[in-house]
Amino acid sequence: DAMVIQNPRYQVTQFGKPVTLSCSQTLNHNVMYWYQQKSSQAPKLLFHYYDKDFNNEADTPDNFQSRRPNTSFCFLDIRSPGLGDAAMYLCATSSDWGGGYEQYFGPGTRLTVT
Amino acid sequence: GQNIDQPTEMTATEGAIVQINCTYQTSGFNGLFWYQQHAGEAPTFLSYNVLDGLEEKGRFSSFLSRSKGYSYLLLKELQMKDSASYLCAVLDSNYQLIWGAGTKLIIKP
Fold first, then answer.
1. Do A108 and B41 touch (CB under 8 A)?
2. CB A89: neighbour CB atoms within 10 A?
3. Which residue on chain A is closest to B100 by alpha carbon?
4. Distance of residue A87 Cα from the nearest chain B Cα, in angstroms
5. Which residues, in sequence order, are CB contacts of A103 under 8 Å at separation 6+?
6. Which phi and psi angles does A84 have, rounded to 5°?
7. How many CA atoms lie within 13 A of A81 on its CB side?
8. Residue A1: which pLDDT band, with cuts at 50, 70 and 90?
9. Nearest partner of A95 among A1, A11, A32, judged by Cα
10. What digits encode the pLDDT tens for the residues B11-38?
11. Is the four-CA dihedral B45, B47, B31, B102 of positive or negative sign?
């Protein structure tokens, strides 16, 4: 089945220790998104890619970086995780940007910072 | 600023009907989505409205009034598996998706 896959599902890292989360998709969608979601809050968009065009949301901290080496893969790098970065990180895709293109979400990576 | 308002939590009985409201104030409007999110899982798409009126999809229906900045999600014949959070999200003039914090729906037997 075509899908959005995230690894790992659970990640524990130490305060200040860099961590990379990965996302892959078999949908061949042009657009990929990274969201941060904390408990009982709305998903917060960190980045999105339209093909290889990178778009950084204005309020995304510099501590967060992203890479999309090809259509299928996207990575989220957290350079120096703080306790406030503990959250669920959701990767999503859509076939195109704009209009009623639904987003398909991966299962998420729950990040714990100790 | 941009704002999406939904009730934080609602409770309903199995087999009943529930309506979850969403009001929005955004810079432009290019459609409204409803997503379902079970605890600890990713959101899944339920509906998309861009024109006024009611869209029905099985037990779920979604209504939009653009002039009032208002939408609702109607769930009929509630089942225990419908216990989840329901997120309203609006596509603004820049095609950015503005998300609400979600309504946690609790279904009781």
1. yes
2. 24
3. A42
4. 11
5. A33, A92, A93, A94, B43, B45, B97
6. -70, -10
7. 21
8. low
9. A32
10. 999 999 999 999 999 999 999 999 999 9
11. negative
